Amino acid sequence: MKPNTAKRLLLFFTAIPILIIMVWFDPTPQLFVMNIFAICAGIGASMETGKLFGMRIHRWRTRFGAAILGAVPAFLGFLVILLGWDIMVFYAGIMITLTVVLTYVLSVFPEEDKKVSFYAKAGVALTLTIYPGAFIGHFILFTLLDHSKLIILLFFLTIFLNDSLAYVGGKLFGKYSNHPFPLSPKKTTIGLIFGLVTSVVFMGIGSVIFPQLFPLGPLSAMLLGLVTGALGVAGDLLESGFKRSAGVKDSGNLIPGRGGIMDSLDSAIFAAPIFFFAFLLFQS
After folding, report:
1. What pLDDT is attached to residue 95?
2. Predicted TM-score of the model (pTM)
3. 16 within 8 A of 157, measured Cβ to Cβ
4. In contact, 43 and 67? CB cutoff 8 Å
5. What is the pLDDT of residue 113?
6. Does the pLDDT at position 187 exceed 90?
7. Are 31 and 275 in contact (CB under 8 A)?
8. pLDDT at residue number 85
9. Which of 31, 33, 99, 262 is 20 to 30 A from residue 2's alpha carbon, by CA?
């Protein structure tokens, strides 16, 4: 077994029990442990993404700004669940943040280095507020749902199993398979099929074991599994595009065998909003 494969498998079998303990055994209705983790992940992911975008992250002001952009949406989500505010406060807060950020970029641009265009600075600042910031905020919004612990575990297990089985399937059977994604040349069609089938089957099994989560039946669960798996792949490809543009292999070096926060959570971050809205629909 190759060292990188062993590291990925070790991380998977370590991360899953930690996730289950962190979510299932948290006695607080607001799931403080996971949500504090989500806020910290938002900060770290925003700083990593800012660095990929060319921000001079070694400067304390830039580092602090990137951290704030990642923390604000997640913190807004935390306030919504802690204080019982309407969910629209979360989205209104993000719009206000975007307005403030763009106003700040407009006000400081004449004093900044003219080698970086206004479009680049405005684009980076606004993107970091939405991705990964607002997307990670949906990790926290899961807490608003009925049976939130089950839904959170179902979501992350679907994403992690999709990623892991796609990797294993590609390694075992994808030697002569097509490579459909130029952004990520190592991904194979066989691996993609393995991952998507895993997501569909796992969600279908989940609907049988926990029928209270899926009032529309197993078919809706399997469809959600397919969409979640596909969005997970899209999130991974998006991060690959950022890294290829930056000329780096990993977004960071925080996690052995995986790289940075975004290397491990890119799929989950991208899929989280749709998964959340799907359960809002189910529970309406």
Report:
1. 93
2. 0.90
3. yes
4. yes
5. 57
6. no
7. no
8. 92
9. 262
**Omega of the bond leading into 132 within 30 degrees of 0 (cis):** yes
Residue 218: partners with Cβ closer than 8 Å, 6 or more residues away: 204, 207, 208
Q: Which two tokens stand for residue 268?
A: 């989950």
Phi, psi of 255 (to 5 degrees): -115, 115
Rounded mean pLDDT of 125-140? 91
Does residue 259 sit in helix, strand or coil? Answer: strand
Distances (CA, A) of 125 to 36, 40, 47, 206, 208: 23, 19, 11, 39, 44
User: Over 60: is that where the pLDDT of 126 sits?
Assistant: yes
Question: Does residue 56 have a pLDDT over 80?
Answer: no
CA–CA separation, 41 vs 53, rounded Å?
A: 18
Do the Cβ atoms of 225 and 200 come closer than 8 Å?
A: yes
Per-residue model confidence (pLDDT) at position 120 = 77
Rounded CA gap, 159 and 269, in Å?
A: 10
- The 10 Å Cβ neighbour count of residue 63 is 16
Give me the residues paired with residue 259 across strands. 255
CA distance 275 to 267: 12
Domains in the chain: boundaries? 1-27+147-284, 31-144
* pLDDT, the chain, mean: 87
* CB 177 within 8 Å of CB 189: yes
> Residue 253: pLDDT above 90?
no
User: Are the C-beta atoms of residues 70 and 43 closer than 8 Å to each other?
Assistant: yes
| Cα dist from 26 to 20, 77, 272, whole Å | 10, 18, 21
At residue 33's C-alpha, the angle toward residues 29 and 39, to 5°, is: 110
The whole-number pLDDT of residue 147 equals 95
Q: Which residue reads 């802690």 in tokens?
A: 82
Longest dimension (CA), the chain: 60
Q: Which residues contact residue 282 at a Cβ distance below 8 angstroms, ignoring those fewer than 6 apart?
A: 213, 214, 215, 216, 220
Q: Please state, in angstroms and rounded to a whole number, the distance separating the CA atoms of residues 137 and 72.
A: 9
